[in-house]
Amino acid sequence: MAENHLNTSFEFRSHFPRNESYIDYLAKLRWPNGWVCPRCQAVKARRVRRHRWLCAHCRYETSVTAGTIFQDSHLALETWFRAIWEITVGKEGMSALTLQRRLKLNSNRTAWILLHKLRQAMVPTELDRLSGVVEVDVIHRKREQTPVKGQWIAENVVIAIAAEADRAEAGRVWVQTVPDLTRTSLHVFIAAAVAPGSTVRTDGSHLYQKLRGYTHQCQTYDERNPRQEKLQHVQAIIKELNSWMLRLYPGGVSTKYLNDYLNEFTFHFNPRGDLSKWERFDRLARQAAQIKPTPYARLEKPQPVRTRGVN
Predict the structure, then answer these.
(1) Which of 17, 52, 54, 252 sits a CA distance of 20 to 30 A from 93?
(2) From CA 189, how far away is CA 169, in angstroms rounded?
(3) For residue 123, how many other CB atoms are within 10 A of its CB?
């Protein structure tokens, strides 16, 4: 595809010369097999305004942004899609301040809202579940611990990490907070993150016992051998996560939005060199077109983490 040759922001903007180009692109994302009326399921309609279609059967009028993350936004689609491009072409993530500067937005608050809404679209789906040999471990930061330099979370939190371990380096990852450090919470995390039939490799904690639907490998250690590495693939991801968080958010992050940041880390880490810049952009744009609107009130009071496509 010609889009796969897009490498710069200038080339991206040239690919969408008019605002109508973004509307047409979003319409293709929403209705890849042709327009369908959300009320009567008819397939014939005519375009009555730039971004609205009128059903020829029931006369229901539909906006291309209705029911998507773009609904009721005061920002132009050009701003949204340029933000998606800027976020996805870099592998290091992006702060609200940097996005504000890149898009020349009037306020940092606008950039912050834009970023957090797009992070909602980065939630892993069932198609992202890990497979093969998968290492699982946790980061447990206790509330009573005194914050230290180089620590980006200071509140009581449990972060579960799963990493594919079939190769010398870690493959795809799945990183998410869990409610508590219990067998139930960790088993629910594994069921969401790892495809059934895979091999799950953990330490000797009793919390992983009676794991059903997987081949369970328990890694034991010789305390007399300090060079022996504990779950080396997961440990490499933990180091990468710490470095990524401290580089982007040196002041630390609140547990209130922690899963949003973890989604962003996972989204950037997983594709790496496997996808072109356009493919990374198109992937996030498609996911943004498929999720429900995220009102500002919901951003202010984030709901408990949910994984789309996994029961």
Answers:
(1) 17
(2) 22
(3) 21
Domain boundaries, the chain: 127-255
What architecture does CATH give domain 127-255?
Answer: 2-Layer Sandwich (3.30)
Tokens of 169: 């380096």
Label residue 93 left, alpha or beta by phi (over 0 means left) and psi (-120 to 50 means alpha): left
pLDDT of residue 306: 45
Region of residue 56 (left: phi > 0; alpha: psi -120 to 50; beta: else) = alpha
Burial-class residue 33 by CB neighbours within 10 Å (0-12, 13-18, 19+): exposed
Backbone φ and ψ of 55, nearest 5°: -65, 130
pLDDT at 149 over 70: no
User: Which phi and psi angles does 36 have, rounded to 5°?
Assistant: -135, 130
Q: Which residues pair with 140 in a beta bridge?
A: 158
Share of the chain above pLDDT 70, in %: 86
Residue whose entry in the numeric block shows the structure tokens 């594709």: 271
Q: Which residue has the higher pLDDT, 94 or 208?
A: 208
Q: What is the pLDDT of residues 240-282, one digit of tens each?
A: 999 998 888 887 787 888 898 999 999 988 876 678 889 999 9
What angle do the packed helices 96-103 and 77-89 form, to 10 degrees? 120
Q: How far apart are CA 177 and CA 157, in angstroms?
A: 7
Of 50-64, 148-162, 295-309, minimum mean pLDDT range: 295-309
CA–CA distance, 114 with 230 (Å, rounded to integer): 39
More confident residue, 18 or 150: 18
